[in-house]
Design goal:
The chain is an alpha/beta fold and 261 residues long. The protein contains nine helices and eight strands. The two termini are 30 Å apart.
Length: 261
């Protein structure tokens, strides 16, 4: 897909990966809807885009709310005339104490944001994109969602693993409606969430972040590059891109995995 002149929406765009993605899509001459519950951060992202000569507008949405997700899609249609690109990026971690000692409300909220938010955003975006003859959706998963998971935070791993398999299951939409859905699986990225993890007191989880701090920490802009790559490459659907610390990017060959039918 040629990004020039398209309408893109990025959730969790007030900082980190979401901000980098929004800025990069605007640099590719898309009109960008910046979405975050952190309105101050979203305003800063919009200001950064506009200062570089790009076009952006901000709206607040809780990605777990059916009303809010529907409203953010409608905002894109009302403001820029439609929706062509969605980056489902909003995500959180539970924080301390570790599972199973943390309150169920904490990890349930994480599941809602990290997984339900992706499913909701995709559902409403598909309806909007069908009006435009197609589109591209990129979901932010994690290296914690593939391979051996992430023992220090198993519910986070479950939420991101759900995103990977949801994405793979949506591959047929490429042929059905010209809507391509892929996901990016980063390692440790230099974001406020990851920096917060390094301050944890829990020994195992803190050791994880400290171990990766000695490696090449991934810049958010590198994840934004993958988002743009997925949008532009019309051949990719249902795929996951691993972006590992200090190692080359690699597509997960979900087509090689066993299938039910």
């Amino acid at each position: 897909m040629d990004i020039v002149g398209k309408v893109a929406l990025v959730t969790g765009a007030g900082s980190g990966i979401g901000r980098a993605s929004a800025v990069r899509l605007a640099a590719e001459n898309a009109s960008v809807v910046v979405v975050d519950v952190n309105e101050h951060g979203a305003d800063e992202t919009v200001a950064q885009i506009e200062a570089a000569g790009g076009k952006a507008a901000r709206t607040r949405a809780d990605v777990t709310s059916i009303h809010d997700v529907k409203a953010m899609i409608e905002f894109a249609e009302r403001t820029y005339g439609g929706l062509d690109i969605l980056h489902n990026n909003a995500g959180i971690i539970t924080g301390e104490p570790r599972y199973p000692d943390n309150e169920p409300e904490h990890w349930m909220r994480m599941l809602e944001i990290n997984l339900t938010g992706v499913i909701l955003g995709t559902q409403f975006a598909i309806h909007a994109m069908k009006k435009r003859g197609g589109g591209a959706i990129v979901n932010t998963a994690s290296m914690a969602g593939i391979g051996y998971g992430f023992a220090p935070n198993p519910v986070y791993s479950a939420s991101k693993g759900g995103v990977v398999l949801f994405t793979a299951s949506m591959a047929p939409w490429k042929d059905e409606a010209n809507i391509r859905i892929n996901c990016v699986c980063p390692g440790v990225v230099d974001t406020p969430m990851a920096r917060g993890g390094a301050q944890l007191s829990d020994t195992e989880e803190k050791a994880f972040y400290e171990r990766f701090a000695a490696l090449q920490i991934i810049a958010p802009e590198e994840i934004a590059d993958v988002v743009v790559e997925f949008v532009k490459d019309d051949s990719l659907a249902g795929r996951a891109m691993m972006v590992r610390n200090g190692r080359p990017r690699e597509l997960v060959r979900t087509s090689d995995l066993p299938r039910l039918f």
